[in-house]
Each structure stands twice: as structure tokens, then as C-alpha cells.
Design goal:
The protein is of the alpha+beta class and 316 residues long. Helices cover 49% and strands 13% of the residues. It contains 13 helices and five strands. It has a five-stranded mixed β-sheet with strand order 1-5-2-4-3, with helices on both faces. The longest helix has 17 residues. The N and C termini lie far apart (58 Å).
């Protein structure tokens, strides 16, 4: 592992031009291909609008124009800074002696002091009014993405209350969004909610007939209002609990998922077991969830629709 990470310094003093060009082309294709996944594209655009002017708005793979500015020397300089100054986490999985593994990691990777990451888990601009943004593309199905500021400190106990709210609203099989918007009203092809822990934001995503935009949006928002008013039945609550139990216990079956779980924990300064997360979730009650929901602020409503078609589904 040391050779892989430090190889360009130890064995070559840099990166090969041919390899850089190849990776530039690969990355260019990935960036340009993001529009092929319309579900994720709508979510990404919603986040970009919410965090406009902030680093968090940048698409995770960057943009095509910046690829042109990357040179061999600039890339190597950036690489050196990352491997020598940025925080390093070493995760060891399996049957091993902890003392030996720790000493070996320190021996191989050194004990140099590295920079600390000071994460800011909130949207860094004041909330004023909900933004409604509509964009057009060649799509067969309209895509709605709602960006909600949860105003929850994700390093606090309130995070578990937010997780339970998310399960009840749109993450579990019997969630309000699935049951009421998709199954009963038949207003969407899919609908779900998820939490972006690192920015205390909830995203709601749905695929709809363009003519159903107003109805679907209003019914989605009604589910949040119902939670704010404490309208949560036993089936919705138990479905959320069972969903998280299954998901959290399944983490233990995959080394990759377990290490990813611990890394996310480390980044918020809390190393706890998946089973401990579940125990915290079981202690959340309806009043907790209601209180969290009443902190929500609807920041952005993003709608991706077909060109030449109005929101009521009629041709323009």
C-alpha cells in the first residue's frame, strides 16, 4: 500500500504524460456523461443551486474546462501536498493484533503532523426565500429534486432523530412519500428522500409526468407538513425502524461497507458501531421527529422537464 501511494515519488519522481492524458480523457467522459443519469443529475443540480458560490456546489468530478489547466507539474505538486499534509486514516479489517497493526502503520506511514479538517456542516448563506428553478432537456419523464435545510447539528443526538424522520418520510418501504404519493395517488414513478450528512441537507427526488408537477409537488410537501403536525402512524414508524435495522446490520457483512461506515463516522468525529446507531434510533419518539421537522426550510425546488412542454403537460 505504501508503494502504491508513494510510488510516483519513490520510483519515478512524477506522473507519465501519457497516463495523465488518458485519465483526463476518462474524466472528461465521466463529466460529460453525467446527464445520462437524469435522476442523479437533477439531484446534483439541486445541490449546485443550493450551494451556489460555495465549494460544495462543485460537481464531485469537477468540470471539463478545468481539465485543460492541469499540467504534469501542477498535478505532481498537488499530489505531494495531499500525501504529506492532508489527514490520513488507516483502517485495518480482519483478525489482527491491534497494538501490532497500530505500530506497523506508524512505522510505514510515519508520525508526521498533518493538517486538521475543520468541517462546516451547514449551508453557509442565510435563508431568505425558496428558489424555484426549471430547466429543460430531452427527457421522457419530469424530475423533481427538493433541497431542504434541516438545521440539525449532525454531530449531535438530533442527527438520529433526523434519520428516523427520513425513514418515515421517504427512505423505508412504507414511507409516507412512497405510500401516499406513488401508491395511493399514482403521481410519480419513484420518490425517495435521503440525508446529506456532511451539509445537514435533505434531498427529495421524484420522477413524474410533467403534467402532474403541481399536484405531485404539493402532495410531497403535504407529507412533510403531516410530520410537522405529528401525523405518524405505527406502520410508518415500525417500517422505518425495521429498515434501519436491516441496513445497519448488513454493514457487518461487507468489509467495504464497514470501512466506509467508519470513515464517515471519523469525518464527523464520532466512531461508533452500526449497532450503536440502531440503539440510538430506537430511542427516538414521535415528538422528537415532529420537533426536527419544524426546523425544516425548503431552500430549492428544481424541476427538469422536456423542451417545449409546459408544467401542465401541454405543448408550448
Amino acid at each position: 500500500m505504501y508503494d502504491i501511494i508513494y510510488g510516483p515519488i519513490k520510483y519515478g519522481g512524477g506522473f507519465e504524460e501519457e497516463a495523465i492524458l488518458q485519465e483526463k480523457n476518462n474524466l472528461k467522459q465521466e463529466i460529460e456523461g453525467r446527464i445520462n443519469d437524469k435522476v442523479q443529475y437533477a439531484i446534483d443540480r439541486c445541490i449546485e443551486i443550493m450551494f451556489e458560490g460555495q465549494n460544495y456546489a462543485l460537481y464531485e468530478k469537477g468540470n471539463v474546462d478545468d481539465l485543460q489547466t492541469i499540467t504534469k507539474d501542477k498535478l505532481f505538486s498537488q499530489y505531494q501536498e495531499v500525501i504529506t499534509k492532508k489527514p490520513m486514516y488507516v483502517f485495518v479489517y480482519g483478525d489482527y493484533d491491534e497494538e501490532w497493526a497500530t505500530s506497523k502503520a506508524l512505522e510505514i506511514f510515519g508520525e508526521e503532523k498533518r493538517e486538521s479538517i475543520h468541517n462546516n456542516f451547514f449551508v453557509n448563506i442565510p435563508f431568505e426565500n425558496t428558489r424555484y428553478v426549471t430547466e429543460e432537456m430531452e427527457v421522457n419523464q419530469g424530475k423533481i429534486a427538493l433541497g431542504i435545510r434541516t438545521n440539525v447539528d449532525v454531530t449531535s443526538e438530533d442527527y438520529y432523530k433526523l434519520l428516523m424522520l427520513n425513514g418515515i418520510l421517504g427512505a423505508s418501504p412504507k414511507s409516507k412519500l412512497f405510500e401516499n404519493v406513488r401508491e395511493k395517488a399514482s403521481l410519480c414513478y419513484y420518490v425517495f428522500s435521503r440525508i446529506d450528512r456532511f451539509k445537514s441537507v435533505m434531498i427529495i427526488s421524484s420522477g413524474i409526468e410533467i403534467k402532474n408537477y403541481e399536484k405531485a409537488l404539493n402532495l410531497i410537501l403535504q407529507q412533510i407538513e403531516d410530520i410537522k403536525n405529528g401525523k405518524i402512524d405505527d406502520i410508518e414508524y415500525e417500517s422505518a425502524i425495521n429498515y434501519y435495522k436491516t441496513a445497519l446490520m448488513a454493514i457487518y457483512d461487507s468489509p467495504r461497507d464497514l470501512l466506509s461506515f467508519y470513515l464517515n463516522q471519523a469525518l464527523v468525529g464520532q466512531i461508533i458501531e452500526p449497532k450503536e446507531v440502531f440503539e440510538n434510533l430506537k430511542n427516538v419518539n414521535i415528538e422528537d421527529i415532529k420537533r426536527i421537522a419544524n426546523r425544516f426550510e425548503l431552500d430549492t425546488v428544481y424541476f427538469l422537464k422536456n423542451r417545449g412542454v409546459a408544467k401542465d403537460g401541454k405543448d408550448l
